[in-house]
Structure formats: structure tokens, C-alpha cells
């Protein structure tokens, strides 16, 4: 089994380079480079009593146009994934891959018979005969590490016909104007949707993930969950971030502009064979004449961290992921790529 590693390992990278972590240009992590403005004095926050989450439930339910009784909060998206796999306790799991590696890890830990469907095969949406009845199907949309958004209407109808339990991960959907699978909640009660609040709201250290499902499912989940999973600090930060009216508009605008700039830089490189279509805030890239580790070594002196995607299923050591960041980071990357070009030409 390939290693379950992720991007954003800034501290170990800084230690390796013997520099401050603030000096690292982290293009490996797909966290929004725009941060919400938070107007909270955390020193004055009342932490003497146990937190209550009614206000946060109300804000999140309004954001996604669902009822508060249809959501459950978790200490981050990964925690939500592990809880759902344990809660469902099914025998077989079909993951549309490549996908976030925590799904594969959870399937193995909770003894699911794991099957993977290769999303990169052009006919995968029309060739689903292998999906078994009453199994769990997992689809990340927009996907990772390539960022493509899929119209899942045809697939969801097929999964419903097979009585599957459906888990849709929409952690990157906020970076798009695309449609959510939430519309299917009214017609199918074996649907679970993950909304990780980490990516878009740029708060990897604020651990909040949300599962959206029908009221009956959420009630059953809550019965087996701890009473307090999120701290008052986490809760207040996220409420302030979501209530920032201009944040989403500014984020979409700046990410779109810088994404075009990054794409232009990538397109000009002769050691890049393919840039995968992306609807999210990152690009999956296939290299030529150089592999991921060799590229990482060259950009190391520029203190740039990029994501080697060789541990994703159906990818190899010529695949990397580069996240959209600020203009200065993209300019430094462009300079680093000039040196890469000299090494491969």
C-alpha cells in the first residue's frame, strides 16, 4: 500500500532547509491563500463554560440551505470520514480514484472490502456494472488531486438504483459556482455529503468538518457521538469567517485571477506534458523528462514545496500538484522553473 502522506508539511520542510516556516512557499497545500478577516479578541472569549453549537448550526444550515437537524459537526473533515465509515459498518466500498487518501485508509481500518474505480478512464461513468448493491460509494467532487468537477446526476441515479450508500465529498465546491448534490437529500435517505470548512476558509488549524444528511441519519450519528467535539475557539472563528460577507466574493475573484496566472506559467514549460482540467484552486500536472522528486530537489533552493502525487492511485512519479497562491509565490515558482528548464533541456 502506498504511503498515506499529504501536502502542507511545512514544519518538516523548514527544518530540512534550516529556515523559518514563514519563508516557505507552500504550493503543496490546497488551502485558500485568501484569509477571512476575523474581528475577535480571543483573550476575552468566555471559555469557562461548555460550548453550545446552536448559532454555528444555524449559520452553516443557512449557508448550505439545509435544516440544522440535517447537519452534524466534526473535528475536521478527516474525523468526519472515519466516523461515517465506522458508523455505516458496511462490507464493501467503491472509491472513485484517485481520491483523498483518508478514504482508502478508513476503508482498510474498518475492514471494508475495497474496490477502486479509475476516474481517468474516459468511459468510467458508463461502465458501472461492477458496483454492488448495498455497498458504499465515495466520490470527491471537485476531485483531488486534479480538481475536476463532475456532473453526477447520471451516476447518482445509478447508485440509487443499486441501493448504495452514497458519500459525496464537496470540500472544494466553495471554490466553484457548481451545483451541490444536496438537492438529492429530498429523494434519497442513504446520501451523506461532506463539507470540509478547512479548505475555503483557510483554517487548517481550526478543525471543523460538516456532514449533511437526512434528519434520521443525523439523529443516529449524534446518538453515538461525543457531546463536545469542537472548541469555543474553533466555533467562534468559523462563525466570524462565514459571516464575513465579502470573503467569498473576494476569494473567488482572487483565486480565478491567480489561477490564470499560474496556468500561464505552467503552460510555458517544456517539461510539463499535461495540465489537467481543474475547477478547484490547484492543478494536477504530468511531467516529462523529469520526475516529481527530481523537480522537488531543484525548487528546494527556492524554498518551494510542491506535492508529489505518486502515492495517489492510478498516478505515478511524473505527477505533481501545484496550488494557486499569491502572485509573488507564482513569480518565484516561475524563476525556479527556469532552472528546471536548464536541467532538462
Question: How would you describe the overall organization of this protein?
Answer:
- The protein is an alpha/beta fold and 345 residues long.
- Helix content is 34%, strand content 17%.
- The chain has ten helices and 13 strands.
- The strands form three sheets. It has a seven-stranded mixed β-sheet with strand order 2-8-7-6-5-3-4, with helices on both faces. A four-stranded antiparallel β-sheet has the order 9-10-13-12, with helices on one face. A two-stranded parallel sheet has the order 1-11.
- Strand 5, helix 5 and strand 6 form a beta-alpha-beta unit.
- The chain is globular, with a radius of gyration of 21 Å.
Overview in brief:
The protein has 345 residues and is α/β, with parallel strands linked by helices. The chain has helices at 10-17, 54-64, 77-88, 101-109, 153-161, 215-223, 232-243, 247-267, 292-299, 327-344; strands at residues 25-26, 71-74, 92-97, 113-118, 136-140, 165-169, 191-196, 209-212, 272-275, 282-287, 304-305, 307-308, 319-323. Helix 3 (77-88) runs parallel beside helix 4 and helix 8 (247-267) runs parallel beside helix 10 (327-344).
